[in-house]
Amino acid sequence: MAASLIRTSYSSAFAFSSPKASVYSPSVSPPSIKVPAFSPLTVKPLSSTFAPHAVRAISLATHATLTPSSVPADTSTTTFHGLCYVVGDNIDTDQIIPAEYLTLVPSNPAEYEKLGSYALVGLPSSYATRFIEPNETKTKYSIVIGGANFGCGSSREHAPVALGAAGAKAVVAESYARIFFRNSVATGEVYPLESEVRICEECKTGDVVTIELGESRLINHTTGKEYKLKPIGDAGPVIDAGGIFAYARKTGMIPSESN
Amino acid sequence: MASSLVSPSPIPSFIGNKKSLGSSAFPATSQIAIQKCKKQVSKKIVSVMAPQQSERKPATTGSVKTGMTMTEKILARASEKPQLTPGDNVWVNVDILMTHDVCGPGSIGIFKKEFGENAKVWDREKVVIIPDHYIFTSDERANRNVDILRDFCTEQNIKYFYDIKDLGNFKANPDYKGVCHVALAQEGHCRPGEVLLGTDSHTCTAGAFGQFATGIGNTDAGFVLGTGKLLLKVPPTLRFVMDGEMPPYLLAKDLILQIIGEISVAGATYKSMEFVGTTVESLNMEERMTLCNMVVEAGGKNGVVPADSTTFKYLEDKTSLPYEPVYSDAQASFLSEYRFDISKLEPLVAKPHSPDNRALARECKDVKIDRVYIGSCTGGKTEDFLAAAKLFLASGKKVKVPTFLVPATQKVWLDLYTLPVPGSGGKTMSQIFEEAGCDTPASPSCGACLGGPKDTYARMNEPKVCVSTTNRNFPGRMGHKEGQIYLASPYTAAASALTGYVTDPREFLQ
């Protein structure tokens, strides 16, 4: 499992309690790029080919500490770092999670995991590199980069859930279909970020990227290019909290669960 | 860039007031005049104002109100606000929440987790639970999901649960209906002016009744189950004016394929689609449902057709609950307006692998096909089967490829066996289908529209070419990833079945 994820956020107590948060130790490294071993608080610096601001972003992470949940959510230091998986336009929900797997109920933890293992399995065979390797149940790509109208088709919440359960942390697409966007925010499973240009045409599957949420920026370390993202806005804290219910309870909008 | 498009030929306006639309010059085509928006449509609202007749003194009119579209009005009423503008985020009171066997268990799981194991739904009469997706299968999880629905409905005393227990004989289940969107209409749960949410993208179908209806995910549904409300953003409206007499070879499916082909699968994202015009007025309820059904295929948030005598007549024997229709104000603002002269349109298909991959059916006549599928909320209603039967009757021939018929609900199935087909000398649709060599009509459900468990009837398990009356044709939609699905109207599907190639129905109808 090669996804190296550095994610620091003051609401991490919520994040780490949700089923999707996991710590991955890299078992496969891409040949020419050093992927740092992940440990919660310390991060080895990346190789010297990386741009200085990327190093700054990572070193910010080393100073962040996991604090109790009483500190309000703040996306300004949230960063994602890892390999990206690039898809095209109009990736519909049948490609993200084929209908035959919809018998799996996302609120059931064992079935939640199983859903993750089928994420993006519906992509045609023209995608030679698969999102999840055969015999694996998690993805090594923590960031999905897409084109226009990502997530179109069905209202099935299984779509963002499958991506999140598989280990994706964020999708960066040119645009989204509305129900998928809404479901991503409501579940808190993946950050649905929007790019200003067609990043999908300039990135390749396997590129190492960093997303700085606070700066609304994506850095492709493999190509050395940087891209502006549209700010996640009010959706950020909701996803940070773990979805609309967690957010509503945290902010006092609805009372905490009675049990 | 907001585009306003006006056909150059004089077309009687549906709305009484003459509207002066900001028009930009465009090349007239034989079918429709349209300007393709390459960039994202800006949120600039094009104001459509009726000319002021006399000066309005504020003192006599009270607070100044801007005209609202139908969708804005419905949401305003549901959020108890006097005035709404597109972009407003409002808490909306929900009139009906629908869920089915695929998303119901997940929604229930979230409801219980968030509101407590012993929590009660906000209103046991406003939750309608309709198993319909994976019913006639031996898949244990699919069967278990229907059981989960039953347990919940029993515990909550849900008034409307269309249960099924005997999977071997659908007729042995008096409560079972079938496809949720058709059942909602047939059972009188769709009413003008209301807000209907469902855990299914094709919930937009109910917009045919002049209500706000849209699809939501499990988490949103769990929220509604507990509170009866949801935070929604008010969408701007795209208006589609369709005028002209419907040619005998066209159906509502052709109209919506025309529109989706024009604006693309993301052309209506976050927007409402309003359908007006003399053609729309001439459509029966099921045809209007087909029109609104595929709004989501253009990315649309919801679709609406103004309620009229056709609507009221349909509802007469179906609901006793009072309802109050709403209509777009004459001064309402629409993002864009598209006008169509229907008499110039031709039968269409959407080629693999996108609902906006529009082509004339007659231009695909060399495409050899392996099978035809007639079913789903889009093309498996009584009117859809009537259309197919009419075409088979007109030809008198037999189909050349396996032709699968999956009625949407028990009522539709019954209609196939009891309704006489006009001009047939008293034959029923089922008789005509049998004589044409179609498969026996199957148990009503969503069937193979979305593939489903591997043992689903008519599922595409090998790479085949299929003409289907369903709503999506993305890779793998009906099962096999390399399957080729041509979306079409029931007329076009029937015609294609008779020749073994994608066929324009005018070969058999004129």
List keywords for this structure.
heterodimer, A: alpha/beta, 7-stranded mixed beta barrel, 14% strand, B: 510 residues, 6-stranded mixed β-sheet, 15 helices
Description:
- The complex is a heterodimer of chains A (259) and B (510).
- Chain A is an alpha/beta fold and 259 residues long.
- Chain A is 25% helix and 14% strand.
- Chain A contains eight helices and seven strands.
- Chain A has helices at residues 12-17, 52-63, 93-96, 109-117, 158-166, 178-187, 235-241, 244-250; strands at residues 79-86, 141-145, 170-173, 191-195, 208-212, 217-220, 225-230.
- A seven-stranded mixed beta barrel of chain A has the order 1-2-3-4-7-6-5.
- In chain A, a hairpin with a 4-residue loop joins strand 5 and strand 6.
- The longest helix of chain A is centred in the N-terminal third of the chain and has 12 residues, at 52-63.
- Chain A is globular, with a radius of gyration of 17 Å.
- Chain A starts with 11 loop residues before the first helix and ends in a 9-residue tail after the last helix.
- Chain B is of the alpha/beta class.
- Helices cover 27% and strands 14% of the residues of chain B.
- Chain B has helices spanning 58-61, 70-78, 104-115, 140-156, 180-186, 218-227, 252-263, 278-282, 285-293, 309-316, 376-379, 382-395, 410-418, 429-436, 490-499; strands at residues 89-93, 96-99, 127-129, 160-161, 195-198, 212-215, 229-233, 237-243, 272-276, 302-304, 336-341, 348-350, 358-360, 371-375, 403-406, 465-468, 484-488.
- A six-stranded mixed sheet of chain B has the order 13-12-17-16-14-15. A five-stranded parallel sheet of chain B has the order 4-3-2-5-6. A four-stranded parallel sheet of chain B has the order 10-9-8-11.
- In chain B, helix 3 (104-115) crosses helix 6.
- Chains A and B meet through helix 6 of A and helix 3, helix 4 and helix 6 of B.
